[in-house]
Structure formats: C-alpha cells, structure tokens
Specification:
Length: 268
C-alpha cells in the first residue's frame, strides 16, 4: 500500500538533514562574522584618526589644530567604501545560503513527490490488474458453462432439431446461430496470448465477436487490457464494424498490419 506524502518526506529527512544543518549553521554565523569584521574596520578608522592627529602635532599644530578634513577624507575614501563592501558581501552570502537551503527543501519535495506518485501508480495498476483478472475469470467461467450447456443440448437432441447430422429435422437459423455462439470460445494463455475457436477450429477475434453478438471494440478492449499489443493498435483505428480508418492504416508498419489481419480487421 502506498505511503502518504508526509511519510515519504519523513523517511527522506535523514538524507537531507546534514546538508540543511551545515547551511543553516553558516547562515546563523554570518551576522556574528559581519559584526566582527565591522568592528575591525572601526578599529582601523580609529587608528587612522590617531595617526593623522599625531602627524599634525609633529608638525606643531597642537591640540587645537586637529585636522578634521584629513580624518573626513579618510573616512570617505577608505572607511565608508570598506563598510559598504562588507555589507554587500554579507547580503550576497545570506542570499546564497538561503537559496541553498531552499534548494535542498525543493529537492527533497521533488524526490518525495516522485516516490509518492510512483507508489500511487503502482497501487492503481495492481487494482486494475486485479479487476481485469476478476472479469476475465468470470468470462472464462461463463464460456465454459455455455460450452457445457451446448454439449448437453447436443446430446439431448434439443427438441427434435439436429446439429451435426445426429438425426431429426434440420436446425432453424436461430437455433444454429445459438449453437455456434455457445461453441465459440475465447481463451487467454499468459505465455502465448489469446486464442479464439469455434467448434474446435481457429477463428479471428472479429469472427468471435460476430458469432457472440458482441461489439468488436469491446473484445479488443478486453485483449488490450491483458497486454495484447495488436489489440491496442486496433483500438486506435478500428470501428465496431471491423473496418480500420484507411488514413491511419497507411501509417502502420507491415508487422502491425499483419497483426490486424490476424485479429480479423476487414480491410487490413
């Protein structure tokens, strides 16, 4: 039975948790690293200001002559660009790490959805196979029962009608058709495919459907569900009357047309 999507995702967690944790750790550490580097730039600014002041004093400007213009120039040309670059670097780093984390989440969801869908399809296919087997078993049992009834009717004389020269009056057309319908058989052999017979002689799928009074496409559909490729091809271009669409028929390979002929397609 297919698992729920939540169950599949939970089972995938251990395979993604390590990578997610590693990325999240870097993401959490980024603000601390940025603050440390900013403190370093502040320290350099302070040291530069001290150096400018010392140089001014050495030139005899005294305390009152602090060169504010030089300090402002340093702040504008060195400090401010460095701070801007630092912030830009960490914005980029944060975006990259966030996208990496999101990408891991998307990958996990994609893989989980794929597994979930595959299990759903597997369950559906199994259900369809079980239903096809059930229907086929019912049809096979009915065919055997019909054959048994036909054999019993033949042995009992059938109320004065004679089938196959056993004596009595000639069979009416309706009685003959009923006898033929009862004797027509559809057999599926897993390793070989479908076999159609009437009175022990091989017939086509179309002949079987005609004898049984069944829609030819319904017979083809039963065959296709059991994996018969020729029947699957026929369903795409053959009508209930047994004739194929000529425009589609021309597109088939020789092998495919031979397969349709074997089914009894009337213009293959």
């Amino acid at each position: 039975m297919a698992r729920s999507l939540q169950q599949v995702m939970a089972e995938l967690d251990p395979y993604y948790a390590g990578s997610k944790t590693a990325v999240q750790t870097q993401l959490d550490a980024a603000p601390v690293q940025q603050e440390a580097e900013l403190s370093g730039l502040d320290a350099k600014l302070g040291q530069a200001n001290d150096n400018i002041l010392s140089a001014a004093r050495s030139r005899g400007l005294g305390f009152s002559g602090i060169p504010v213009a030089e300090q402002a120039k340093y702040a504008a040309t060195d400090y401010a660009p460095a701070v801007a670059n630092l912030k830009g670097k960490y914005v980029t780093q944060k975006n990259t790490l966030t996208e990496a984390l999101n990408s891991l989440g998307r990958d996990q969801m994609t893989q989980g959805q794929s597994i979930f869908d595959a299990e759903q399809q597997r369950d559906l296919a199994q259900q369809q196979l079980n239903e096809q087997k059930r229907q086929f078993d019912m049809q096979l049992a009915e065919s055997k029962a019909q054959a048994a009834r036909a054999a019993a009717a033949s042995r009992g004389g059938g109320g004065g009608y004679s089938f196959g020269g056993l004596g009595g009056a000639a069979a009416s057309p309706a009685a003959a058709a009923a006898a033929a319908a009862n004797s027509a058989q559809m057999q599926y052999i897993p390793t070989k495919g479908f076999n159609f017979t009437n009175g022990g002689k091989g017939i086509s799928a179309y002949a079987f459907s005609s004898i049984k009074g069944q829609d030819f496409r319904n017979v083809l559909s039963q065959m296709a569900k059991q994996g018969d490729r020729n029947a699957g091809v026929a369903l795409s271009l053959v009508g209930s009357d047994g004739y194929a669409d000529p425009s589609k028929l021309r597109l088939l390979t020789g092998a495919q047309r031979n397969g349709l002929k074997a089914l009894g397609v009337r213009n293959a």
